[in-house]
What we know:
Layout: H1 10-39, E1 46-50, H2 58-63, E2 67-72, H3 75-87, E3 93-97, E4 110-116, H4 125-134, E5 136-147, H5 154-166, H6 168-171, H7 185-194, E6 198-211, H8 214-223, H9 226-233, H10 237-255, E7 260-272
Parallel strand pairs: 1-2, 1-4, 2-3, 4-5
Antiparallel strand pairs: 5-7, 6-7
Helix pairs in contact: 1-3, 5-10
This protein binds S-adenosylmethionine.
Amino acid sequence: MADYNVEQIPAGWDEAARFYDQHVASFTAKFARDAMDLVGVSPGARVIDVAAGSGALAIGAAQRGATVLATDFSRGMVELLHDKARALGLDNLAVRVMDGQALEVADATFERAFSVLGLMFFPDRQKGFAELSRVLVPGGKAAVVTWSKPDKMRVLGAFQNALWRALPDLALPLRPPPWLPLTEPEAFKKEMREGGFSHVRVHTVAHVLVFDDPRTAFEWVTGATPALNAMIGTLEESDLASLRQAFVEDVCEAQGSGPFGFEAEAHIAVGRR
Length: 273
Ligand SMILES: C[S@@+](CC[C@H](N)C(=O)[O-])C[C@H]1O[C@@H](n2cnc3c(N)ncnc32)[C@H](O)[C@@H]1O
């Protein structure tokens, strides 16, 4: 069973950081661009990226000329992002280890605040929204990205189907992810308003993940987050092989010989302090 509590242990993300950066961040960067386009990021704007990971948004914002502070509670992610920023010569991008529920930043510091597929993991999302609002100047804007319902994340759906088929005993107790409430746009809006935002709107966007080989898609879905990573780590080698085979068979049956595409839908809530 996927244990989502492991996603609040920074070490899990430290371990996932390199894989995440190499295989996942270029995809999440598409949603980060959507978020930036919705609220605008102009040269010189002061921007905070909360739960920044390896910098899908922070790097894009710095490349648009903003002065960016990227924060994450995983030291592994933060160090990796620091190295990437140096390699790209982005001296307008600073990084700091911080819990997004307790930002060590003065009130009213930034014009734009973002959290892309990050705040959704916080056990206390209200604190997460309130902190984003607190660090914004009055009139400043935030955008928060979360995945849509699990069935709108096709690669996860294919993984779950394979799990049910290959290892039904393991599949049955799958728990809903903790961010499920945010998949309802009205609930997402309400949480953001309660966190101190006005003019809140939720936009729905989708991008397609493309793989040449379904085995790579399997590695992607199982390596992308600590919860599935940990679950996979508990499997016997033979069970893992059956699960991979079921996934590959299902995907080939549905999509033929490839390339293999999986749509992923996300909601982006934008609001003004
Ligand atoms: C799915 S990744 C998203 C990373 C990046 N924003 C992106 O879009 O690629 C989730 C990130 O949230 C971070 N995270 C989870 N809980 C956190 C918390 N309480 N405070 C700060 N960061 C957190 C993790 O360390 C991880 O880097």
